């Protein structure tokens, strides 16, 4: 991995890419989405502060566990500008996601445990189907893979 001398305080997009492991196109995307920021040189080249390395690492880690980019952006907006975030900063931000991640883990476990039961059944409304209809709320009324619209009777007694 290329080393950047301590005296360099701004990184080119290529240096940031090499150090972070993120593709240049991903860095441009992150910047367009407001996850990282750069300043421009007189030659209109992007320069990133060294603190951007930690921000990119945070974005990539959050993406790996399925955190939406909008949520990541909100979290990063709470961090101080022009300062490398501390462990305390990251702990505070990631704690807010713990409940969401625990629920996602629970759902994935349920999916793993019951996936074979539902593949190919086609009905998706079985009493045992925990994937699309966990409590089989509609199984008492109808069977099938889709819900049909409920027709209201017309005032004369015919269905509308």
Strand order in the largest sheet: 1-3-2
Strand proportion:
5-15%
Mean pLDDT: 78
Class from secondary-structure proportions? mainly alpha
Number of E-state strands: 3
Global Rg: 25 Å
Compute the separation of the termini in Å: 69 Å
Distinct helical segment count: 6
Unreliable stretches (pLDDT < 50, length at least 5) are none
Helix content: 40-55%
Largest sheet at a glance? 3 strands, antiparallel
Morphology call: elongated
Secondary-structure element string: EHHEEHHHH
Task: Describe this protein's structure.
The chain is mainly alpha-helical. The protein has helices at residues 13-20, 24-32, 52-64, 69-77, 87-95, 98-118; strands spanning 10-11, 39-40, 46-49. Strands 1-3-2 form a three-stranded antiparallel beta sheet. The termini are far apart.
Provide the fold topology:
Layout: E1 10-11, H1 13-20, H2 24-32, E2 39-40, E3 46-49, H3 52-64, H4 69-77, H5 87-95, H6 98-118
Antiparallel strand pairs: 1-3, 2-3
How would you sum up this structure in a few lines?
By secondary structure, the protein is mainly alpha-helical.
Distinctive features:
160 residues; mainly alpha; 5% strand
């Amino acid at each position: 991995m290329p080393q950047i001398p301590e005296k360099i305080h701004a990184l080119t997009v290529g240096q940031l890419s090499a150090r972070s492991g993120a593709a240049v196109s991903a860095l441009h995307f992150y910047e367009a989405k407001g996850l990282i920021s750069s300043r421009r040189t007189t030659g209109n080249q992007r320069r990133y502060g060294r603190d951007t390395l930690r921000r990119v690492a945070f974005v990539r880690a959050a993406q790996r566990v399925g955190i939406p980019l909008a949520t990541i952006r909100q979290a990063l907006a709470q961090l101080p500008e022009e300062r490398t975030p501390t462990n305390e900063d990251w702990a505070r931000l990631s704690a807010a996601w713990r409940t969401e991640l625990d629920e996602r883990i629970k759902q994935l476990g349920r999916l793993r445990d019951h996936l074979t039961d539902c593949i190919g059944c086609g009905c998706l409304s079985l009493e045992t189907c925990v994937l699309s209809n966990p409590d089989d709320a509609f199984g008492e009324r109808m069977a099938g893979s889709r819900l049909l619209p409920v027709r209201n009777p017309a005032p004369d007694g015919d269905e509308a």
